[in-house]
Amino acid sequence: MRARDLVAPYPTVDLDSPVADAARLMAERALPGLIVLDERGAPVSILPGTQVLRLAVPRYCQDDPALARVVDEAHADAFVRALGERTVRQAMPERPRELPVTDPDATLLEVAALMARTRSPLVAVLDGDRLLGAVTLSALLERLT
């Protein structure tokens, strides 16, 4: 089996999309992340939901779980609203990792190794310059198990 056998159309955002819109899209569709495209429409990164959380959750709560416990639900919602006008570009990690992109002929083991190495819940599949979609972790695990 090859990547082409598991690839499915997948939502994308661009670098200048509001990160709040990206978060909403992930929530509405229960997505683990989104493919981020540059100005030419080429994948430049995967924006995992966890990276959006890193931007939304105050650093003091990330560093000290005891502080996170004392914030009630009503105030926790304010953190997500605090994303405001920030863009996907601002949510991207400072030091980008290897881009989880492969071609349609990649084996499932190659896709799994790429996911594991890049810690990405999805891998973009490109046929030349054309984005075919993505292989998700859930689709890969379902096939492997």
Automatic annotation (TrEMBL):
This is CBS domain-containing protein. InterPro entries: CBS_dom (IPR000644), CBS_dom_sf (IPR046342), Diverse_CBS-Domain (IPR051257). SMART domains: CBS. It holds the Pfam family CBS. Signal peptide: none annotated. Keywords: CBS domain. CDD domains: CBS_pair_bac. PROSITE patterns: CBS. Residues 1-67, 92-145 form the CBS domain. Transmembrane segments: none annotated.
